[in-house]
Amino acid sequence: MFARYADGSALLADCPATAGPAGQRARQAAAVGLEQAVPKAFAEPRPLMAGATAAGEVLTALPVLYHTQRGGRLAADLARPLGEHTWPGAVTAGVEREQQES
Predict the structure, then answer these.
(1) DSSP classification of residue 64
(2) Cβ 65 vs Cβ 39: under 8 Å
(3) Cβ contact 30:55 at 8 Å
(4) Beta-carbon neighbour count of residue 37 at 10 Å?
(5) 99 burial class (0-12, 13-18, 19+ CB within 10 angstroms)?
């Protein structure tokens, strides 16, 4: 879960659906499919939530999106908090730090 406080700071909490190794394996299996779906959904820059929805279940796609961005496969303007105004795009498509505003 990702939460942003009013002062701009953030909290990232991992809340497993089930305890134990079986739950971990299920999350890892789901992430494998999303690791391919997320970059594909953002092959061209698009609004954050629209791309997350296109990749799969939003609540499972967003953590993969953040991981993919930290890994350098997606880029977005991070000068402002992430939101609907954020348009991530694939770095391989030539997007360096492209930001479009609605």
Answers:
(1) H
(2) no
(3) no
(4) 18
(5) middle
Per-residue pLDDT at 58: 86
Q: Which fold has domain 18-93?
A: Arc Repressor Mutant, subunit A (1.10.10)
Q: Which residue is listed with tokens 């939101």?
A: 83
The total number of residues written for the chain in this structure? 102
For residue 84, is pLDDT > 70? yes
Asked if residues 96 and 87 have their Cβ atoms less than 8 Å apart, the reply is no
Q: Which residues contact 57 (CB under 8 A, 6 or more apart)?
A: none
What is the chain's mean pLDDT, rounded? 76
Answer for the pair 69, 86: CB distance below 8 angstroms, yes or no. no
Q: What is the pTM of this model?
A: 0.59
